[in-house]
Amino acid sequence: MKVSKRGMFKKILIANRGEIACRIIKTARRMGIATVAVYSDADRDALHVRLADEAVRIGPPPSAESYLAVDAIVAAARETGAEAVHPGYGFLAENAAFARALGNKGIVFIGPGAAAIASMGDKIQSKRLAEKAGVNTIPGHGEALEDARQAVAVAEGIGYPVMLKACAGGGGKGMRLARDGDEVREGFRSAAREARSSFGDDRVLMEKYIESPRHIEIQVLADGHGNVVYLGERECSIQRRYQKVIEEAPSPFIDDATRKAMGEQAVALAKAVKYVSAGTVEFIVDAGRNFYFLEMNTRLQVEHPVTEMVWGLDLVEWMIRIAAGEELTFSQAGVRLDGWAIEARIYAEDPVRDFLPSVGRLVRYRPPAESASVRVDTGVHEGDEISVHYDPLIAKLIARGDTREAAIGHMRGALDAFLVRGVSHNIAFLAAVMAHPRFAEGRLSTGFIAEEFPDGFRHADAPGGDPALFFVVGAAMHRAYEDRAATITGRPPRGEPTVAGDWVVVLKGEHHPVSVRAVDGGFDVTVEARRHQVRTAWKLGEPLFRARIDGAELCLQVERLTVGYRLGHAGAQADVLVLNPRAAELHALMPAQKARPALEYLLSPMPGLLVSVTVEVGQAVKAGEELAVVEAMKMENVLRADRDGVVAAVHARPGDSLVVDQAILEFEKEGP
Asked: Is 625 a catalytic residue?
C-alpha cells in the first residue's frame, strides 16, 4: 500500500484506555500533537482522561457499548476534528471494519490497512499466506473445526498433544491445550464459547503443540514507500493461561543466525501482505531453534517498550509518522542492538489463588521512580478503581541494563519498591520469578510457571527471600516504635535498657535472640552474635523500608500489624513478632492453631458472570471434574472439584452476576 505524505497531524484521537492511552498521549505531546481521549462512565476520572487535551464520553462501562462502539468513536473523532485515530492494542486495534469506517469519513487509521488486518486477523488465512511467503508454519488442520467430534478425529490424526485456537483470537483468549480425547472435547467447547464472547466468532482451529516451546516474536516497521525493517526479537515465554507476564529483548536463547533468519521471514510476510505500520510476527521456537509461524499481530504490542529501550526507537512515534506518509529514515543496516531490557506486567490478580483477577480500589499506589534504567507505563493513580469491566493490567514495569544480569538487577530493585495496596497483585510473584535460578540462566519455556510453581505461588516458596534480612529489619522497626513509645510516655521502653533492645524475633515458629542499638543514621542489629549495620532514614508508618544493610542498598515493603510486622522482599513475605524474652517463652507454649475444615460449598473466587453449571443436584462428582465456568475480565475461569462429593443444591444459575465468595453449589456434608 502506497501512502502519500500529507503533513504531520495536528490532533489525534486515542481509541483506547488505561496505560496504552497514556503512553500514546506522552509521545503525541512530545511531537506537538493535540490528543483526544474517549472514556466510558467507569473511566470518567481515569488518568488518560486527565492527561489528554480533550475527552469525549462514548458510553456505559461494558466495552461492547463504549470502547468497541465504532459509531461512537468515529463520531467523537469527527466532533473534535481529530485527523487520525490511534487504536493502541486490544479493543478495535485489529478491527478491519473500524479502519474502513474511519477511512470512509476521511480519518486516518494509525495502523496497517484494512486488508492486511483482515488477512492476518484470521489464523487460517494468515497461515496460508505465511506458507505462500516461505515462512515456516506449524503442522495442523487447515480449516475451522465443525464440532467436538471432528476435533477428536483431527487430533488423533495430528497426534497429541494439540492446541485448540480461536480463528479470530489473540491475547491468549480461546486457546486450550489438549492431551487426549476428553480434553479435546472439553477444550473445543470452552474455546468456542470464549471466542464467541471475546471476538464474536466461535470458529476454532487445531495445530500440533510444540513441546517445551519458547514464544519469540519479531518486531517489524514498514512504511508506505516499500521499506521494511525488523527490530530484533522479544522473548515472551513466561506466560500463564497463554497470556504473557514477563518479556525481554533480546532473547537469551536466540543466536545471530536464527535472529537473521526469523527477521527475514517476518519481513517477507510483511511485504507479502503489503503491510504498512508497526507489526509483530510471532513464532514458536523449539529446543533446536527450529521456529514456526504462530500469528501476526497487526498492531502495537503490549511489550513494545523492551524493543524501544534496546533499539533506541519510539514505535508509537513511527506509527504516527508512517500514517502521515513519512518514509523510514534508516535501513536494516542502520539499526543496532544496545543493551538488554525486561518488562514485567503488574496485574490486579492473586497469584496465591491461581492468578484469579482482583477488583477494588487502589488505596495506595506508588510506582518506583523512573530513570535511565527504569520505566513505568501506567494508566492509573492512587484512588482509582480496578473494575470487572476491563483487563486487570495496572502497569508495565520496564528495566534496562547493559547486560541481562544488570537488567534483572534493576528489575528486582524496582519490584521491591513498587507499592500497591487495596487489591491483590502479582508483584511478589514477579519478584520471585526474577530471583529464580532458572530465569537467571535463561532456561525459559511457555511452561515455566507451571513447571516451577506446580502447586501455585506461595510467598514462602520464593527463592529470593533471606530470613536473616527479616530478622534484622523487623528488629530495627520494633526498636523505632519502642523508642517513640518511650518518648511519648517519658519512660524507657517496657522492661528494656535505654541504650539497647534485647528481644527475641519469632519467624515461622522459630525463635532468634536479637539485640538492637540505636546509632547515628540507623541501627546496629545483632542476631545470634552476628552484627548487622542498618543505615536508614525510614520514618514510622512508611510502607517502604529503604536502607543500606551491611553495605547493600535494599528496599522492603513493610506493614505494622496489630501484633508484629509484615515484611516483603524479593517475592518472599513473612510475619515477624518481636518479643521480650519472657513473652517469647510464653509464646513458645502456645498450641498451634488447627486448620479449619474445608467448606461444603463451591464459592465464586471472583466477581463475574456465571457462564455455566455442569452438574445437578444428586450428582456424584470426582476431584478435578468441571463444576462451573465464571467469566471475569474477558476470560473464562473453569471451577473444578477439589475432592469427591455429591451435589446437594445449586444456588446460582447461568447468567447470574456473582460477587466474590458467593455460593454456587452446595455439597452433601460428610459423616462424623
From this structure: no
